[in-house]
Automatic annotation (TrEMBL):
Belongs to the universal stress protein A family. This is Nucleotide-binding universal stress UspA family protein. It holds the Pfam family Usp. InterPro entries: Rossmann-like_a/b/a_fold, Universal_stress_UspA, UspA. It comes from the Bacteria. Residues 1-137 form the UspA domain.
Amino acid sequence: MLKKVIWATDGSPTAEKVYPVAKGLAESGGAKLIVAHAGEMVGSDRAGVFVDSAETMRATLERTADDLKRAGLDVELALLTASQRNASQMIADLAQETGADIVVVANRGHGPVASIFIGSFTLRLLQVAPCPVLVVPAGRQRTA
C-alpha cells in the first residue's frame, strides 16, 4: 500500500496530464500526495537566459495543493530551487527524505531548455531515484 506519492511537475501541459494519475494513486490508498517542482526557472528567452515566472509557478501549484486539501487529500507542497541539470537529483533527494513510495512523472515535458533536454529529467530520475518511478506517457489522462 502506498503511503506517500510524489507528483513531480515542471508546470508543462504534459506534466499536468499526469496529475490525475498521481491524485488517483494517492486517493485509492489514502496516501499523502507531495506536489513537487524542482527549479523555479520555468522559461527561457532565445539566448537561453531564464525568464522569471517563479511566482506564477508558485501560485499555480499553491492553488492546486489547496484544491486537493479541500477535496480531503493529505497534501504537501515542495518547491525546490534547482537548475535543469540537477532537478532530477533534487526530486530523488526529496523522495529519500520523505520516504516516498513512488514518484509519478510524465515521459517528457516542455520545461526549461526543452529543445535540448527533452526526456533527460525523467531518464536521470530513473537512474537516481530511491523508489519506483511511474513514467506516464504523454496523452495518458486516466486515473490510477
